[in-house]
Amino acid sequence: MKGPLFYSKILLFGEYGIIKDSKGLSIPYSFYNGALKTDENPSTDAVKSNASLKNFVSHLKQIEEEIVVFNLEQLQKDVNAGMYFDSSIPQGYGVGSSGALVAAIYDKYAQDKITVLENLTREKLLKLKAIFSEMESFFHGKSSGLDPLNSYLSIPILIHSKDNIEATGIPSQTNNGKGAVFLLDSGIIGETAPMVSIFMENMKQEGFRSMLKDQFIKHTDACVDDFLKGDIKSLFKNTKQLSKVVLNNFKPMIPNQFHELWKKGIETNEYYLKLCGSGGGGYILGFTENLEKAKQSLKEYKLEVVYNF
Predict the structure, then answer these.
(1) Measured between alpha carbons, how far apart are the two ends of the chain, in Å?
(2) How far apart are CA 185 and CA 170, in angstroms?
(3) Which of 89, 188, 227, 289: disulfide with 32, CB 3.0–4.6 Å?
(4) pTM metric for this prediction
(5) 90 and 282 Cβ atoms separated by less than 8 Å
(6) Which DSSP string corresponds to 126-185?
C-alpha cells in the first residue's frame, strides 16, 4: 500500500508574526514529500515512524467529535498492520514534516472531509485550519494548523490574520532570473517548542511587544504585499529591514555561528537571511538579487533554490 504524496511547505513570511496577527505567506515545496505506506519488510525508520503513529492515534481519539470524526477502527487496524509515514521531509528543519503527516492522515481517515476540489470558502479553510491545529498539537504543543493546511491543499496560502486566510496565486517564476529565494542548511536540528516558549516569554516585555508591532509586523506585511505584487525592488528593501530586526531581536532563534553571516549579508547587500519556521536550527531562508554572488559568498554552505525572480 502507498498513499498519495503530501509536500513540505515554506513559510516565506510571517514566522512568529502570525501568532500576533501579522500577514503571512506560505508556499508548498514539492522537493520534499511524504506518503503513508506499509511494507513487507519495514526498515528501522519505518518501525520508528509506526511507533510514533501509534501514539498519534491515541491523541486523535481525544479530539472532540464536533471538530472532526475519523474512521479510527480502520486507522488502528492499519497502524497495527505496520503502516508508517515514508517521508523525505527533514524533521526539525522548519519545512513542515509533521504538517505533511497530519494532512495524509486527515486525507485518508477523516469522515465528511473537506476536499481540495470543493469551492474553498473562507469558512472551509478556517474549519480545516482548526482541525489541523488540533491534530498537529500532538507534535508541537501548540499549532496554528497552517503547515498541514498548506500540505493538504498544495497551493500557496495568504494569511491576513488568524481568522482570515485565503488560497492565493503567486507571481510565476522567471527561470533565467538572477534573483532567488533559497534555503541554507544550518546543519543543526531545531525544535519548535523551546523557541516558541522563548518568544512567549519575550512577549511579556513591553519593549519587545512594541518592536513586534512597529517593526517586525510592519516589514513582514510589506514583504508579503511586495512579493504578491511582484515589486522586487521594494521587496528587497523590506526584506533587508526584516533581516535587521530579526538579527537584533530574535538572536536566540539564530544559531550562534550564523550571527556574523547574517550581519555580512545586510552589510554587503549580497543576500538577506531570515528565519524559516521557528528557527533554532534547521533551514535559514535567504533572499538575493544576485544568486551567483550569494553562492560565492556562502560557498561553504549548501543552498537549495526555492523560487527564482
Answers:
(1) 40
(2) 25
(3) 89
(4) 0.91
(5) yes
(6) HHHHHHHHHHHHHHHSS--SHHHHHHHH-S-EEEEETTEEEE---PPP-TT-S-EEEEEE
Mean pLDDT by 10 residues, the chain (309 residues): 90 91 94 95 95 96 94 97 96 91 97 90 94 92 88 94 90 87 94 89 96 96 96 97 98 96 98 94 96 96 93
Q: Quick check: 285 and 12 in contact, CB under 8 A?
A: yes
In order, the DSSP letters of 85-124 are EEE-SPTTSSS-HHHHHHHHHHHHHBTTPPPTTS---HHH
Give the residue from 71, 69, 67, 56 showing the smallest Cα distance to 139. 56
Cell digits of residue 100: 505533511
Overall residue count recorded for the chain in this entry = 309
188 and 282 Cβ atoms separated by less than 8 Å: yes
